[in-house]
Amino acid sequence: MTKSAIIIGGGTAGMETASRLAHLGIEVNLIEKQSQLGGHLNSWDRLFPNRRDSKEVHEYLEHGMNDAIFLHLNAEIDILRHESERFIVKLKDGKELNSDALVIATGYEVFDAGKKEEYGYGIYDHVITSVEMEEIFRKYKQKNLFEGMASKRVGIIHCVGSRDEKAGNIYCSKLCCVTGVKQAIEIKELMPDAEVFCFYMDLRMFDRYFEEMYFEAQAKWGVQFIRGRLSEASENQDHTLLIKVEDTLTGLPLKMKVGLLILLVGFVPNPETRRLAAMLGLKEGDDRFLCPADEHTLTNSTTIPGVFIAGTVKGPAGIASTIADARATALQVADYLKVQK
Amino acid sequence: MEKGKYRLINRNTGQSLRVVEHIGCHYSKMFPSKGIGGAEYPYVLTGMIEEWGGEVIDYPERRHCCGFGFRQYLVQANRGFSISCSKKKFDSMEPYKPDMILTNCPGCPMFLDRWQYAISEMEGKTYGENGFGIPVLTYEELAGLILGYDPWDLGFQVHQVPVEPLLEKIGIPYDPEKKFKGINGQDLGRPESPSFLKFYPEKA
Questions:
Q1: Interface confidence (ipTM) of the complex
Q2: Interfacial residues of B (vs A; Cβ cutoff 8 Å)
């Protein structure tokens, strides 16, 4: 009899897990709450470190979707149950699905920048998030970014909602740093006369070619990096923003007028993940992301046999590592189904 | 609920009065969860101003220090910090043409009021209209005015920056002759006029 798996979440992790499982001859039901697959990948314009179009990765993932995968778009989960080695999913439209294994790939959400109200997001027009900056890049490839703006200076704020006890998130979102560097370079490419300042705590250029991008941003594009956290942003009468930062390398407070302020928002656990985890009785860590069965050796499975976790439900991760993780998850699921009677 | 007698509307133009609100440090910094509207941007004064018909000004140095702070004022050698703090605020709010400043701490109005005089003596600079300063009120004083108390019963004669221009805008009647009379009607004498800051309204 064909074994089956239900995958919840049709983003990068869910799509790749589905594709690999289908390839291994397993029947897959892929549940996605949005009207299209791709998740957050659809929000990015170009990807670090090589700045390729994100659509190329989307196309690759889309290519893995085949007839053995039953897609459920616009689908919301009502009830999730575990009954004698079977998983039963009731959708809100009344449809009921069941399977031998379950993969949770519900991903993350970006931090709600409005919670840092001293940064002025949602209050001032020219304070935007890094996600909105990606949208702008998508829309205005040729356009003057600063049309109608009284200043051609851009401030990029790192660690918004990450490594911030007050925001309730002490973990590092790890990919905002390189996103900031990428966006700084892209702004300079688009608008060579722009002045770009990044305000950071540490720059965590952990992955391959990240450090090189950081170097390029400084040497080739003249992006300025100032070590210090934003204290507050307020609006001038001409709608430019006044930002106050402490430059911790000179030990002096700094005030600057910028035309655009980009907040690099971090990862937070998807509330939907937490809801599903509660229904199953899955454990979450102090950071509210899901706990694997073992931090080193069993990162794709959970304490419940047959329940697997893929991608950013376990914490911040980039696209390459999410795809690698999804493949590892698929292999774990296949192994599990093989020995299951 | 009983309505106030007056509203924060300029009776000559029909426009809302433009109000600077200044939250005292101690309001929510010790107990962030107790601040009405949160600890970062408490709503407590904004709510009063809006309820009474006024418009709150959001200016760049809105959250800057009023100029008090024990170490910068009580240590005499540090008073330069104190007055430069207040000046930074006045310079930032001036382009927005505030009709008044509202505070919720006993320290802030003291400094925002008195330093306007000191700055005028030092630099000849005044921040209100026609050589006046920007009147500075505590929320109790403003509530008293809105409810219809006599300005002199509320103690406005001890302000360094005269409140008469504000009373005129709202349309609150006052007797200039009564300003410097004590409760028993006895004359308390008149303070000397500052060099630049207008203290006595022309009408008086």
A1: 0.82
A2: 38, 40-41, 58-63, 95-96
User: Residue B2 domain-assigned?
Assistant: no
Q: Give yes or no for A118 touching B (CB within 8 A).
A: yes
Domain count, chain B: 1
Nearest Cα of chain B lies from the Cα of A154 at a distance, in angstroms, of 18
Structure tokens at B189: 């004498």
CA B166, CA B143: separation in Å to the nearest integer?
14
**Mutation for testing the B interface, residue in A117, A234, A236, A258 having most B CBs under 10 Å:** A234
CB pairs under 8 A between A and B: 18
Judge whether B174 lies within some domain: yes
Mind giving me the DSSP string for A107-128?
Answer: -EEE--GGGSGGGTBTTBTTEE
CATH superfamily name and code, A4-107+270-339: FAD/NAD(P)-binding domain (3.50.50.60)
* Nearest residue, CB atoms, B63 vs list A232, A235, A237: A232
Nearest CA in chain B to A232: B63
CATH assignment of the domain containing B142: 3.40.50.11810
**Mean pLDDT in runs of 10 for chain B (204 residues)?**
86 97 90 88 95 96 91 90 96 97 94 97 96 97 96 94 96 93 87 91 59
What are the C-alpha distances in Å from A179 to residues A156, A262, B63, B118? 10, 11, 31, 50
pTM of the model: 0.91
